[in-house]
Amino acid sequence: MPFSSRLTKHHDGSVLAEFLLDDTEEIKHWILSFGQQAMVVEPEGLRQEILAELETLTAAYRQLPTVLQK
Predict the structure, then answer these.
(1) Which of 13, 22, 43, 65 has the most CB atoms at less than 10 Å from its CB?
(2) Dist CA 24 CA 40 (whole Å)
(3) Is residue 69 domain-resident?
């Protein structure tokens, strides 16, 4: 998989990370590992994939698993 990246540090301490990728699956998991400390700016498709993953995770946490219900 071809891969290139560029990191740009900002005065506020944030870092803009830019990647050229053939596939977003692997980087999606990497981005999610940062929790609220990371945000996808673009591409919009990847933003939507991250959003869908977070919505699914939120829904799962809102429901108490059957095995734990009393």
Answers:
(1) 43
(2) 12
(3) no
